[in-house]
């Protein structure tokens, strides 16, 4: 054991040890979470405002359209009636309505039976 | 007689167009999934069959169809045969009310959203019956598991859709799209979008809620006993449902798909890609955690959003 | 035959057959599946009278929620088929009466509808016209009433504004209250059971402190020592 010389070098940690591992939880995003929440909520608020402004406008337009249509409705109906009467059609006086059987007529009907 | 022939021909052609388009879409959705996942994991993905692997889905389908059909002896044969057909049929029927253009829609009905909700709730039967008819305890437990999952997440999804209906004031799909001309619903209803996305993942049995695909831990799910064509039908139905869900999310939150067709298709495909993104990223949920998330987190939050939406609408009026 | 009438007869026929199967089938799961078919037929009948909303709601509630729960429960019960077969035997006599009744109902339906159909034909192609003119009538657009077109709305709007939140709102509220009572009542009835179960769970709870403090000397004793 006298003449033994160490020919190899053991793979040891560097002097002063390895640098410390950063295993603690770190924030990946540079923006803090509260800011993100605030941003999302403000965008949502703006979006809601735009949507409802548009919706109110659209409803008003629809209402106006309806009112306008109701004004010219009799004219449209009359035009359609003229066209209909000019064509071969079903008898306009034909109806399945019957007068209610009350009073003398009903009594007469019952007597007939 | 002539009239009836015309009706039959017209309906047949229309439905043929929808079905063929859907099947091609499903085939390439599977390829897209494999390609996107490969890109995320720094792989190539399928690239052998055809140019850059474009014919891979056809080869897969052919392989599935040519395999031997095995019917268990103890199985209830009629229901065993009906279950995959039911799943596939319902996933096709759902597409009949989706408008792909201003005029190009198979059936424009007034209550389209309700129709989709109603028909997709029938889709649970395919899974329950497949599990029961296989007459194997693994398939049965898997079927019950998937059915409970789908039923419980339907509630949260329904509530979010209800809040959209309340904002839009209509249940016609085309009118909901018209309501988003000025601003998409994702902006005023961002939390609702997140909830709807999670619920859609659970509805279609996708990761991280893909308990039927957990072969090693849970012995797969309702489709253990199915092979060849039956399995292929389940597979097709599942992917058709995934495409439908991504298109529905695009319709409800991203401003619809009819005004600009290329942009609309891009919206749908981006939703599909985010489904795949979730699959490549997240680990699987445990079953009790899944139920907890559905009933105790998503449902109260969806109710909160709905209350907020109703109070907004009442305030404006 | 009118196409709607044909559809109606087919649907009613399916409903009758499914009702028979529900009564006859030994396996309760088949009964429930046939019940679902009946729900679907009912929704289709609602669609023929253009009530899309009601049909969708019917499927959503009955097929999507109630029947699924039935199926869940029935699947998980262990069923003794022989016993059911024995109990089914005593219903056989009623079945004959039922079949006669079904045939009668279908007969009444078809004959009545035929009479009404003749009336319709007379009304539509009135006696003032010759056959060639009545053939022309099918091409000419029917009379358009613009006033009805103007006031026309969807069925959901009509239902909401006129029925549920309008004239019949009191019944709607009553139904809600009954539902609430049903839900609260179940909790009240099972309250004792729940409390009992909670106590049981408390007793079963793991007491880590006592487990750790347990020692050989204090727990294991010689039999004679106890004596």
Automatic annotation (TrEMBL), chain A:
A family per Pfam: GRIM-19
Gene Ontology CC entries for this record: mitochondrial inner membrane; respiratory chain complex I
Record family assignment: Belongs to the complex I NDUFA13 subunit family.
Ranges that cross the membrane: 35-52
Name this polypeptide is given: NADH dehydrogenase [ubiquinone] 1 alpha subcomplex subunit 13
S-adenosyl-L-methionine among keywords: no
Annotated membrane topology: Single-pass membrane protein
Organism per entry: Dictyostelium firmibasis
Top-level taxon: Eukaryota
UniProt cross-references to InterPro entries, sorted A to Z: GRIM-19 (IPR009346)
Function comment: Complex I functions in the transfer of electrons from NADH to the respiratory chain. Accessory subunit of the mitochondrial membrane respiratory chain NADH dehydrogenase (Complex I), that is believed not to be involved in catalysis.
Locations listed in the record: Mitochondrion inner membrane
Keywords: Electron transport, Membrane, Mitochondrion, Mitochondrion inner membrane, Respiratory chain, Transmembrane, Transmembrane helix, Transport
Annotated signal peptide: none
TrEMBL record, chain B:
GO cellular component entries: mitochondrial inner membrane
Organism domain of life: Eukaryota
One GO MF term attached to the UniProt entry: NADH dehydrogenase (ubiquinone) activity
Membrane topology: Multi-pass membrane protein
Pfam families: NADHdh (PF00146)
Family designation: Belongs to the complex I subunit 1 family.
Membrane spanning residue stretches: 12-32, 78-100, 112-133, 153-171, 183-202, 231-255, 298-316
Any GO BP: aerobic respiration
First-tier enzyme category under EC: translocase
EC numbers, comma separated: 7.1.1.2
Source species of the chain: Dictyostelium firmibasis
Subcellular location: Membrane; Mitochondrion inner membrane
Primary location recorded for the protein, binned into one broad class: membrane
Reaction(s) catalysed by this chain's protein: a ubiquinone + NADH + 5 H(+)(in) = a ubiquinol + NAD(+) + 4 H(+)(out)
Keywords from the named record: Membrane, Mitochondrion, NAD, Transmembrane, Transmembrane helix, Ubiquinone
Taxonomy of the source species: Eukaryota, Amoebozoa, Evosea, Eumycetozoa, Dictyostelia
Protein name (record): NADH-ubiquinone oxidoreductase chain 1
Keyword match Transmembrane: yes
Automatic annotation (TrEMBL), chain C:
Reaction equations catalysed: a ubiquinone + NADH + 5 H(+)(in) = a ubiquinol + NAD(+) + 4 H(+)(out)
Gene Ontology MF terms: NADH dehydrogenase (ubiquinone) activity
Keyword terms of this UniProt record: Electron transport, Membrane, Mitochondrion, NAD, Respiratory chain, Translocase, Transmembrane, Transmembrane helix, Transport, Ubiquinone
Coiled coil: none
Top enzyme class: translocase
Domain of life: Eukaryota
EC number(s) stated in the UniProt entry for this protein: 7.1.1.2
Protein name: NADH-ubiquinone oxidoreductase chain 6
Native source organism of the sequence: Dictyostelium firmibasis
């Amino acid at each position: 054991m006298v003449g033994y010389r160490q020919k190899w070098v053991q793979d040891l940690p560097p002097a002063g040890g390895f640098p410390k591992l950063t295993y603690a939880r770190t924030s990946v995003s540079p923006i803090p979470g509260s800011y993100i929440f605030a941003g999302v909520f403000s965008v949502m608020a703006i979006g809601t405002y735009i949507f409802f402004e548009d919706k109110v406008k659209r409803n008003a337009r629809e209402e106006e359209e309806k009112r306008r249509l109701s004004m010219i409705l009799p004219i449209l109906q009359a035009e359609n009636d003229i066209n209909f009467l000019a064509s071969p059609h079903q008898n306009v006086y034909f109806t399945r309505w019957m007068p209610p059987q009350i009073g003398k007529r009903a009594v007469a009907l019952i007597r007939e039976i | 007689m002539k009239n009836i022939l015309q009706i039959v021909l017209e309906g047949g052609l229309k439905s043929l167009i929808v079905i063929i388009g859907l099947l091609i879409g499903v085939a390439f959705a599977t390829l897209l999934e494999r390609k996107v996942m490969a890109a995320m994991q720094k792989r190539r993905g399928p690239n052998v069959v055809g140019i850059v692997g474009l014919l891979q889905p056809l080869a897969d389908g052919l392989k599935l169809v040519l395999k031997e059909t095995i019917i268990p002896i103890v199985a209830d044969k009629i229901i065993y045969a009906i279950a995959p057909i039911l799943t596939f049929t319902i996933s096709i029927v759902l597409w009949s009310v989706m408008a792909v253009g201003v005029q190009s829609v198979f059936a424009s009905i007034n209550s389209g959203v309700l129709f989709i909700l109603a028909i997709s709730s029938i889709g649970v039967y395919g899974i329950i019956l497949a599990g029961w008819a296989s007459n194997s305890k693994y398939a049965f437990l898997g079927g019950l598991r998937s059915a409970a999952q789908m039923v419980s997440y339907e509630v949260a999804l329904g509530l979010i859709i209800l809040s959209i209906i309340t904002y839009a004031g209509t249940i016609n799909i085309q009118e909901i799209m018209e309501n988003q001309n000025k601003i998409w619903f994702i902006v005023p209803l961002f939390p609702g979008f997140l909830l709807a996305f999670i619920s859609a993942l659970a509805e279609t049995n996708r990761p991280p809620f893909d308990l039927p695909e957990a072969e090693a831990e849970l012995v797969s799910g309702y489709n253990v006993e199915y092979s060849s064509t039956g399995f292929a039908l389940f597979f097709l139905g599942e992917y058709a449902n995934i495409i439908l869900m991504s298109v529905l999310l695009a319709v409800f939150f991203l401003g619809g798909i009819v005004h600009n067709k290329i942009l609309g298709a891009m919206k749908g495909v981006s939703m599909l890609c985010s489904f795949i993104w979730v699959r490549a990223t997240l680990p699987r949920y445990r079953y009790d955690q899944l139920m907890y998330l559905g009933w105790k987190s998503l449902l109260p939050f969806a109710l909160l959003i709905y209350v907020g939406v109703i109070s907004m609408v009442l305030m404006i009026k | 035959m009118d196409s709607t009438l044909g559809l109606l007869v087919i649907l009613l026929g399916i409903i009758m057959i499914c009702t028979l199967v529900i009564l006859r089938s030994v396996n309760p799961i088949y009964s429930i599946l046939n019940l679902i078919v009946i729900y679907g037929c009912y929704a289709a009948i609602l669609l023929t009278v253009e009530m899309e909303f009601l049909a969708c709601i019917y499927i959503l509630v009955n097929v999507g929620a109630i029947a699924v729960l039935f199926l869940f429960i029935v699947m998980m019960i262990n069923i003794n088929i022989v016993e059911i077969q024995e109990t089914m035997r005593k219903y056989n006599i009623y079945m004959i009466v039922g079949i006669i009744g079904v045939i009668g109902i279908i007969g009444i339906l078809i004959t009545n509808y035929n009479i009404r159909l003749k009336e319709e034909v007379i009304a539509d192609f009135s006696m003032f016209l010759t056959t060639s003119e009545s053939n022309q009538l099918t091409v000419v657009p029917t009379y358009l009433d613009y006033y009805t077109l103007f006031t026309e709305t969807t069925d959901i709007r009509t239902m909401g504004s006129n029925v549920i939140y309008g004239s019949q709102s009191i019944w709607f509220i009553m139904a809600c209250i009954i539902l609430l009572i049903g839900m609260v009542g179940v909790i009240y009835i099972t309250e004792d059971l729940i409390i009992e179960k909670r106590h049981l769970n408390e007793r079963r709870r793991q007491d880590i402190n006592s487990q750790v403090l347990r020692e050989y000397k204090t727990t294991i004793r010689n039999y004679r020592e106890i004596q």
